[in-house]
């Protein structure tokens, strides 16, 4: 089904003002990006919304518990210190 909403005029720089009704239907606002697709002689325009990490937070199901990065860092440092102490001990012997 094709619906004609309004017409726009192309400027010399290739700029087209998108009618308010069409912007509302696409759900786009100032600063949003648009995606253009050519289908024969037909132009399809879609609004492209940027997705924030917070929009998808919690959407993945994990089979393992989350890891505390600070705890991992501390364990790694403890391992480095233990290795260094062992090397020093070996050099003294």
Automatic annotation (TrEMBL):
Q: Any idea what this protein is called? A: AbrB/MazE/SpoVT family DNA-binding domain-containing protein
Q: Name one Pfam family in it.
A: MazE_antitoxin
Write out the GO MF terms. DNA binding
**Entry-linked InterPro entries:** SpoVT-AbrB_dom, SpoVT-AbrB_sf
Coiled-coil regions listed in the entry: none
**Residue ranges of the TM segments:** none
- What are the UniProt keywords, alphabetically? DNA-binding
* Family annotation (Gene3D superfamilies): 2.10.260.10
Does DNA-binding appear among the keywords? yes
Q: Which residues are in the SpoVT-AbrB domain?
A: 8-53
Q: Which residues form the signal peptide?
A: none
């Amino acid at each position: 089904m094709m619906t004609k909403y309004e017409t726009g005029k192309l400027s010399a720089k290739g700029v087209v003002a998108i009618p308010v009704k069409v912007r509302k239907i696409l759900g786009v606002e100032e600063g949003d990006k648009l995606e253009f697709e050519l289908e024969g002689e037909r132009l399809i325009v879609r609004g492209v919304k940027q997705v924030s990490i917070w929009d998808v937070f919690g959407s993945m199901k994990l089979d393992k518990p989350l890891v505390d990065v600070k705890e991992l860092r501390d364990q790694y440092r403890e391992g480095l210190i233990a290795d260094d102490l062992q090397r020093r001990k070996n050099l003294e012997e």
